[in-house]
Amino acid sequence: SRYLMPLLDSMKVSQYYVSITGLTLKSNRCLPKFLYHTIPSHRQASVAQGNIFSEVKQVDGVFHTLTVWENKQKMRKYMLSGAHGKAMKVIGKVAKLDGDGTKVLGYESDSIPSWDEALQLWGKDSKLHGKSSKRANTTSSRILASNNRMLLRRLLVQILVPCLALFVLSKMKILGSSALASLKVR
């Protein structure tokens, strides 16, 4: 029993998935658009399958949500669908995405935190929402690839096409070898 209890405790599965978010608006002019998406998103969360607790609160100019779910999969299903899925598509238009802008914290827990606990955890452990370094690297790679394609096109047009034209003309014996020798490549 002395050895079995610690083993059982280590195998214990957390009872809840807690999600704490905080969003700072770009300006007060964004408030109507934010509320247009927030109110339906909150209603959706309240009735979503797997949702146990859902509240919103504004603290020091930051709009917070505290939601508790049966598991992370059910939270993600809600997050990507319906009104909330639509709201996520406009987040960059209404919210700051850098600095202390939009931050999220999700974790497994055996208890539902109070608002004070949630805000303290969010302040300490939250991560910026939005563009990750992986996405930024992917974007940079795409830009680099696009620039390389443009450079290749220029190379083809400015060098290879004239060379190919000269080759074809010489094979068709339109230009003789003395005429080809007199041409200078720029």
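(ticket continues) Second input and output from the same batch:
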Amino acid sequence: AGAEKVWAVEFTNMARHARSLVRNNGVDATVSVVQGAVEELDLPEKSVDIIISEWMGYFLLRESMLDSLLRARDRILKPGGCMFPSQATMFFGIVSCEEERVQKLQDLDQSMGDWDTFTNETRNLYGVDMSCLDQPFEKEQRDYYLSSSIWCELNGDQVIGQPAAVKHMDLHTCTIKDALGVDPAPFSFTTDTPTKVSGFAGWFDTDFAGSEENPAT
């Protein structure tokens, strides 16, 4: 892209493989790989024009690295510099995904069936009565299969009605406090026709618009 200098930052030992790739592709005069935390980066140039990072976690913020990125932004990004991604929006909506819902019910039934087999064998073979754990085990399995979130791929036509945008962040101006989560806010969903709701889904979108001073074209 014509960059005069690129600093590639990687915290783990994958940095060694990154250096090999850089050398093997003949760009080591331009790209330097630094192993360490991006928020502690000490550059000879002291500032950069652009920061590119794949910091996003599940539903954008879970297990994300946004706090580290923002500390780096405040330390080394030049005034008017660009963050890529530039903006991020979190959405929450109701979805029709019966295959996943039915599969989780079947998995729960399978788990409870396995438990019944185990407790019966334990009682018949060893004389140990484990019935006192029936209810705790069932609660644990119901919490896991029916009340825990899962990752899955959804098509746009599986979203019912209009989703709610529950959080929007401009990566040039947002703060570490913004990275802590989503503030409580009222929202509702409506549908045009009767439909079966399988559950709730959360997802996010990002754009590469650039900064106000230097918009991407």
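Agent notes: The chain has a mean pLDDT of 92. The beta strands are 6-10, 31-35, 48-52, 77-84, 87-95, 159-170, 199-207. Closing as not reproducible unless the customer responds.
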